[in-house]
Fold this protein.
Amino acid sequence: MPAHRRASAYESDGKEGRPREVGRRRFLGYLIAAPTLAVAAGGAWELLKPDDARAALPSPPQLSDAYDLGDLQNEAALPTAYLIKIVINEDCTASFAMPRAEVGQGITTTVAMMIAEELDLPLDKVNVSLADARPELLLNQLTGGSNSVRSLYIPVRTAAALARQQLLLAASKQLNVPVEQLTTAAGNITGPTGQALSYGSLAVPAASSTLTSTSVVLKPASKFTLLGTAQNRIDALDIVTGRKRFAMDLDAVPDAKPTMVARPPTINGRPKKVNNLAEVLALPGVTDVAMITYGVAIRAETFGQCIDAIRTIDVSWAGGTVDGESDDTVEKKLKAAQLPLAVPSLGTNSVDTEITFAFASNSPLEPDCAVADITGRKGEIWSSLKVPIAAKEDIEAKLGMAPGSITVHVTQGGGSFGRHLFHDVALEAAEASKKMGKPVKLSWSRTDDFRQGRTHPMCVARIRATYALGNVVSYEQRHTSVRTDFTHGLGEVLTTTAAKSPLVGNYSFAQSIFLLSQSSPYNFGVTTQLLNEVDLGFNTGSMRNIYSPNTVTAEELVVDELANRMGKDAVDFRKAFLKDDRLKAVLEKAADEGEWGRSLPDGVFQGIALHAEYRGAICTLVELDCRPETVDRQIKDAVTGPRVTRATVVVDVGLALNPRGLEAQMIGGFNDGLALALTSSLHIKDGIPLEGSWDNYFYTRQWNTPPEMKVVIMPPTTGQPGGAGELAVAPSMAAVACAYARSIGQIPTYFPINHETLSFEPYPLEPSSPQSPTDGLTNPL
């Protein structure tokens, strides 16, 4: 059985292999010494049926079929799971400091639902905050790989179930009634004669004076009343009313003044000297100027004054790490570094292709920002950080401060796309604050984000597929990429966890990630997918879905070509070669819901693509309008071209905990993939991106989204949630690419397809920031 169909909680109950629910396992929990009831999760303690057995692995499996990146993250988090605690308060609420970052994906809502479900507590009585950096959690405070819900599902529910169990025991004593005769609902415990006690009144009596271990059985999914139902985000009202607080909204340090950085005209250039320091310090509002590692920090009364100072300052710069590089030079170096293919071409019975994927920006809509107050030997930092422990340790080391001297607070993030795995802005804020001796509220400009921030690296996919007698005999994929930087904490997880696994072995960070995330879903004979990376000095990051959008797009384009060469319909061909029943089910559902093969106007084409990752299965079907009147439409400051007019996404995540949140994730992921296929890329020239704002970088806009979109969530298949945050990106990009390939009659060789179109006048490299914004009234257009 392919691992896409497996889940650790989906086990045989001994009756014809029938799966049983997580709730029938017994888990270990801890009562924590605290004034009110505080509980934490341990691990699986015993099985109610010790003879249970898991399903066999498919043969021959690829590595990620048996053990994927999420499994590794779960294993790394397990030793400190008991340090994650839930507290019952006397006001009848429950509090949980979540050791993951909320960056708009909605995990605070899903986690609150888990707690409310197991506690039989109203959802609005659960308060989920973001935990500070907690070094004692070791590898258990990293947000990435669509793993947050997957890794927290059992520990959080275990802690909540234990809290309910202890509240029942306390109520049993007070009411002198056996626990079996008590019921819980809406934050109250009721006895057989109607007498009731609130959770708040039991918070202190249920508390423990010592750390005590005990066991608990989780609620079976058949008893869920909240999980599995569509819920609005618990922070939705704050978001739409502007009350949601991000790092730049914080007033924890009243004297923290706006700070920005004048930056070099090349990536990673360093300042040598400020040539007009006195002039800059004399500008209105400017309080401090300090050279930091990759620029000159300027502190002022307003951000506008910071920008004015950036436009005035004269700095002598040292060279950067990628001076002289361009799209063309990088592409040539990647092609020269490709690993060879092993199977010889069979001529007309081979599909050979080579596809280049351009650099893409790793910038979320919210500019990078951080507040730092480094005073003497201690300090505090506030920022949206997905690996806060690594950030804390690295900042302390680079500032020459003692371990434990800096407190790092995790704030709400306005998006991430993987960008907040890195703590560049927090380090800069800390460095500026220490050098100035004053608190700072440091923000990158959007130009900083695009030009000096992290990028998804350029890569080249080379594929050869051979076929004969109605079968695909071999499938080889060589993925050659600019090096992806994994020095943000995930590398430590891999070092301490994956390297010990006989499945993974002693691979590099990048090779381990590739092996743990990439898997062909087709029975294509001898299959190999290999990675080679080239370190060229670029600032890169593990952008949303990491390698999958490029590798899946390349593979699905070849699948379509194989189907065409062998005279098969693209959907029928996929069904015939798919390994996994869950993928077949989403494929069939998408073909039905999206009306695969329906009559379309000339110039409109369908595309379909599949993907399996994070223990989920997904299929995307699109209709792409390539008619001249659409392709040639004129929109101010836009790159137009083909437009997706209809999209259908069918997803199976095993167990959808919040279908409404899952639907939103699929829509967001779809728009990511659409952008990567059609319009969004960075143009590298002379060692720096030409893009300097969201006006220049063509992520999917309102005029490019499909007017008709449908998300179908499949019924539960595994009893446990898979990852969802990144799942839709790869098949969506691939489906759009396949539709475009049909429109031109061949496999495209470069993505996004509009990369050669430069429809904007690039900002100058110096000064590094455009002029201060106006209110639009003083200087109307």
